[in-house]
Specification:
The complex is a heterodimer.
Chain A lengths: L42 E3 L5 E3 L47 E3 L3 E3 L55 H27 L1 H5 L29 E8 L13 E8 L4 E6 L5 E4 L3 E4 H21 L5 E6 H10 L3 E5 L3 E7 L12 E6 L2 E5 L1 H9 L7 H20 L8 H8 L3 E3 L3 H12 L6 E5 L5 E5 L10 E5 L1 H11 L38 H11 L15 H13 L6
Parallel strand pairs in A: 5-10, 7-16
Antiparallel strand pairs in A: 1-2, 3-4, 5-6, 6-7, 8-9, 10-15, 11-14, 12-13, 17-18
Chain B lengths: L25 H17 L8 E5 L5 E4 L7 E6 L2 E6 L3 E6 L4 E6 L5 E7 L4 E7 L6 E5 L4 E4 L2 E4 L4 E6 L5 E6 L3 H8 L9 E6 L8 E4 L8 E7 L2 E12 L7 E8 L3 H4 L16 E3 L6 E7 L5 E7 L6 E7 L12 H14 L1 E6 L2 E6 L5 E8 L2 E12 L4 E10 L1 E2 L9 E3 L1
Antiparallel strand pairs in B: 1-2, 2-28, 3-4, 3-29, 4-5, 6-7, 7-8, 8-9, 10-11, 12-13, 13-14, 14-15, 16-17, 17-18, 18-19, 20-21, 21-22, 22-23, 24-25, 25-26, 26-27
Classes of the chains: A alpha+beta, B mainly beta.
Chain lengths: 571, 417
């Protein structure tokens, strides 16, 4: 033969038909391999359980003869069919499942191939039939399984068992997901686990004798009874001689049964007994004794059991905003604030821990520090918390738009590291995920918010002889507080307002001094808040599909933002 | 037999004898074309080609397409002052990182601007060719206790603007809050920025009161003289509605800059509706209208309009109201007349999610503005046509992008010859 020509795919009509000799009786069903007439010498079970020619091969039959019966196969003296049949697939004797055989008067024809295999010529072929294989008679590769022409005995061959295609597909899919999952796990361990493990599961031991309200939570954080989470926020500035204070003190109460959430904001300047330290401002409890003392103060003074805590350092918010490259918002009006808390340290010219703010109005780019000032400023407008809420919604919307961008994936690890040191909770990551998922499913109309400002409190000055003598403080109005928190947190007769008496210090309730007007009362929600809420809700791409939702980062961010904004509006 | 395997439909997956000659199919060509387009986008091709001049506040490189405009643009990038020339030159004039609100003098010699610091800002000036910065007025001060309240002697300065003859500078400031607290009894921190003026050649004298603010919503913004009319200024006024004190009313006002100083004691800030009001509204409060800019001849006002839900902003132009409105600002008939141009002759030019800071070209045939595109605030220009019959304005052709990468959106640029 000269050269090679592109084989013409064989037409079925061109193939010679194998004429099977008739059976002596009716054929009702396949009798099974053990019941077929067989010549052990021809077919033996090979290495992999497949049947192939026996040691005796197919004998020395001439082409066209079947020395061993009608289903026997002639022996090929050399490698038959495609040469790439793997070792072990063939029975001793070297006969390939796809090897040709001869029929009387039919010449050499291609043998039935192994089940489940494929041949480019349109009919199944043995494994490895793509590609090389010896040429059969006629010089056309692949058209027929080649045969050296040696041996053409008529010995039987049984189909060798193959793994079905569907099984191979299933195995492939399982392998794919196994590899994917393993890769994801490794990626998480390398890039996130360190940071996340420093954020969640940060247990704070309860004091001896302190009741643990989690003792009955056997089935998880939202398994049934109401839970209360103490949300603390600090400026992470060490101007107070290395002790952080908690500018934010909020109790988030969640009732899984009724699918309701409440947020109780307790003014940081509440002048109340701190266990073991006497009368102090509430924000100082965190500085004096950390989470445990803040927790015990709330529990003791108001009868509110605290199941979990989450502490937020405000610098974490700045870092996250800067990590995503800042946010672009339309500042609604000029922001002018002469009494913004100074979070970057006192200096000789400013011992009062305040700074001035002036943000021009209009669309602009905000870095982390400016964004924090924009959302925290309390004196920039006349509508109090509603003005703040509108501004927070803007920044949230802009931040969520950044987090929904696939480009943020490369920053997720850095964001997780940014949170490290600025977010801590005793909840496990799975608890946080459950909680945030629960919160996202809430009806906003079922979120109750209560701020213990006027008329629940009165501004005054700490009296002489107390640790905060002369400082601006806020005195609780217990007659109004008790029924309000009893209803909100379903405390029943356990609601308390123990602002008189203390286990470790002065127990005298000071006379309430009033030197100024009460803070402005809340006013009705304006169109700005509604409009911005609509804009936020219309952002494309649910957050659950955003890159930031991977590895729980979004849920941790939501927890941080809840502390920074002092609001559930993050959802 | 016809090949039915999918493998045979993909090129290059089979070769050798018995296989079709590899060739690109139509679907593959389409895929390659789409890939090329997406790579083009990723690599930043296709936008305005031009000189890279700076790094913006968002970390991106800012490029300038200098073949599309004539004259000079003075603007800030990452709060450094730059001048962009239409003849392919860019120069950085001030590189402190604190620069806001540039304003070029009518003679083209000086750029007045703001240097903003943590507690205060300074009103400064520098030559348009660069060099040493001169502080005209400083807002430096200190904190102190006044009873239980913390007060301070700091001052903000913002948005300087030149008179037509270059002799006077308008600016915004809260420098008189302490004085007004004493007079009105209002809590000083709530008193916001108002409009003042000083002579350029003697900037340290006591400033003249030009326009007052009502407290609580941030004060005034965008003050400027009307060209050819030294007795008229325009500005944006922020306040809450008188009825409920919960809704923002953001309107454009015009005023005679000499009225308050000519009638001392007739009007007090912080008390809406009390006494004589020298200002007159030229837009209604149902929509928020901000950032007015007079055309070079003073006969038209470009401004930005925003709906109450802050979902869209529009670039608008209207004819300037009649000259007489600032002479009798408290007359109801004058108040109605002042609103006519806005109500009946406003022309809508463009709308975007964010569009701001309009400024006219020196010849009055184009308007430059800042638009939010591709995650950045950039400078655009558009030609404007005026129909004398209808007294309406319209854009001619498509807007042209001048910068890419992001300039400072909160500082208005200046366009000079």
């Amino acid at each position: 033969m000269q050269g090679r020509e592109t084989p013409r795919p064989a037409d079925l009509t061109e193939q010679q038909t194998v004429k099977q000799p008739s059976f002596p009786g009716p054929i009702t069903a396949f009798p099974g391999p053990n019941k077929l007439p067989r010549t052990p010498d021809v077919y033996v079970q090979g290495q992999h359980g497949r049947y192939g020619p026996g040691a005796g091969g197919l004998g020395q039959s001439l082409p066209g003869s079947f020395p061993n019966g009608p289903l026997s196969m002639p022996q090929a003296g050399g490698p038959m069919g495609p040469a790439s049949f793997p070792q072990g697939f063939n029975a001793p004797g070297g006969m390939n499942p796809g090897a040709p055989f001869s029929m009387p008067g039919a010449g050499m024809i291609a043998a039935p191939p192994a089940p489940g295999t494929f041949h480019p010529n349109g009919f199944p072929a043995g494994p490895g039939s793509f590609g090389d294989g010896p040429q059969g008679p006629g010089g056309r590769r692949g058209e027929r399984y080649g045969s050296s022409g040696k041996g053409s005995g008529g010995k039987k061959r049984k189909k060798k068992r193959r793994v079905p295609i569907w099984a191979r597909v299933v195995i492939g899919i399982l392998l794919f997901f196994l590899i994917l999952g393993g890769t994801g796990f490794a990626y998480y361990q390398i890039n996130f686990a360190g940071a996340v493990n420093h954020i969640v599961g940060q247990q704070v031991q309860r004091a001896p004798g302190e009741e643990d309200p989690n003792a009955n939570l056997n089935n998880g954080i939202l398994s049934g009874p109401r839970i209360n989470i103490l949300l603390l926020g600090s400026d992470t500035d060490q101007k107070f001689q290395g002790q952080y204070i908690a500018q934010t003190d909020i109790v988030v109460t969640i009732d899984p049964a009724s699918h309701t959430v409440g947020m109780l904001s307790i003014p940081r300047d509440f002048y109340i007994p701190v266990p073991g330290y006497g009368l102090h401002k509430l924000d100082e409890a965190f500085g004096l004794g950390g989470v445990d003392l803040s927790r015990r103060t709330i529990e003791q003074d108001f009868g509110i059991p605290i199941n979990y805590y989450a502490w937020v350092g405000l610098d974490g918010f700045i870092k996250v905003i800067n990590e995503v490259g800042g946010v672009d918002v339309d500042v609604l009006h000029p922001i002018v604030d002469d009494n913004y808390p100074d979070d970057v340290g006192a200096n000789a010219n400013n011992p009062y821990a305040f700074k001035r703010l002036y943000l021009p109005p209009g669309p602009q780019h905000l870095d982390g520090q400016t964004a924090l000032e924009y959302v925290r400023s309390r004196h920039a407008d006349l509508v109090g918390d509603f003005g703040r809420s509108a501004r927070q919604q803007q920044v949230l919307g802009a931040l969520k738009a950044k987090l929904a961008n696939p480009d943020v994936f490369g920053h997720l690890s850095a964001i997780a590291n940014d949170l490290q040191g600025y977010l801590k909770t005793d909840m496990q990551l799975s608890d946080v995920l459950k909680l945030m998922y629960f919160a996202r499913s809430l009806d906003v109309n079922k979120i109750n918010k209560l701020i213990l400002g006027p008329p629940y409190s009165t501004s005054g000055v700490a009296p002489a002889g107390t640790p905060d003598a002369g400082a601006d403080v806020v005195f609780p109005n217990c007659a109004k507080i008790i029924p309000a928190i009893s209803q909100m947190l379903q405390l029943g007769d356990k609601a308390a307002c123990n602002v008189v008496g203390d286990s470790g210090g002065s127990s005298q309730l000071p006379v309430a001094y009033t030197t100024g007007q009460p803070s402005p009362l809340a006013v009705s929600i304006n169109n700005t808040v509604d409009g911005l809420g609509n804009l936020t809700n219309s952002l494309p791409g649910g957050l659950n599909s955003a890159p930031s939702s991977l590895f729980g980062i979004q849920s941790l961010l939501d927890l941080m933002l809840m502390g920074v904004f002092e609001s559930t509006d993050v959802f | 037999m016809e090949q039915t395997s999918i493998f045979w439909s993909l090129p290059f997956l089979h070769s050798g004898e018995g296989r079709p000659t590899p060739k690109l199919k139509g679907g593959t060509l389409l895929l390659l074309a789409l890939l090329a387009l997406s790579v083009q986008g990723c690599l930043g091709f296709g936008g305005p080609s031009g000189q890279q001049v700076a790094t913006g506040s968002n970390g991106q490189q800012v490029s300038v397409n200098q073949d599309v405009f004539k004259g000079n643009f003075y603007l800030t990038i990452n709060h450094n002052l730059y001048v962009l020339n239409g003849n392919n030159t860019t120069k950085e004039l001030v590189s402190t990182g604190n620069v806001y609100d540039p304003a070029v003098s009518p003679d083209g010699k000086w750029v007045a601007f703001i240097e903003k610091y943590k507690e205060y800002s300074d009103l400064c000036v520098v030559s348009t060719s660069g060099g040493k910065v001169r502080v005209l007025r400083t807002g430096a001060g200190k904190f102190y206790y006044n009873g239980p309240f913390i007060h301070n002697t700091f001052a903000w300065y913002a948005q300087p603007s030149w008179s037509a003859d270059g002799s006077t500078l308008l600016f915004l400031s809260d420098l008189e809050k302490e004085d007004w607290y004493q007079q009105t009894g209002r809590d000083a921190p709530m008193l916001d920025l108002q409009v003042f003026s000083v002579p350029f050649n003697n900037p340290t004298v006591k400033p003249k009161d030009v326009a007052y603010a009502t407290f609580g919503d941030g004060g005034d913004r965008d003050a400027s003289y009307r060209p050819g009319h030294p007795d008229q200024i325009i500005y944006t006024h922020y306040t809450y509605d008188a009825a409920t004190q919960t809704q923002q009313d953001i309107q454009l006002y015009m005023e005679n800059p000499n009225t308050i100083s000519a009638h001392p004691g007739m009007y007090y800030p912080g008390s809406p509706g009390g006494g004589f009001d020298p200002s007159i509204a030229i837009t209604t409060p149902d929509l928020e209208n901000i950032q007015p800019a007079f055309s070079p001849d003073g006969n038209a006002i470009a401004y930005i309009q925003r709906n109450k839900n802050q979902t869209q902003m529009s670039l608008m132009v209207m004819p300037t109201p009649p000259d007489s409105i600032t002479q009798t600002p408290n007359d109801p008939k004058t108040e109605a007349l002042a609103l006519q141009s806005y109500k009946t002759q406003s022309s809508h030019l463009l709308s975007q999610t964010y569009i701001e800071q309009p400024v006219w070209s020196p010849d009055g045939k184009q308007i430059a503005y800042i638009q939010y595109t591709g995650g950045a605030f950039d400078l655009w220009i558009v030609k404007v046509n005026y129909d004398a019959k209808t007294q309406k304005y319209s854009i001619a052709g498509s807007p042209i992008q001048v910068t890419s990468g992001g300039i400072d959106g909160e500082s208005r640029p200046v366009w000079t010859t």
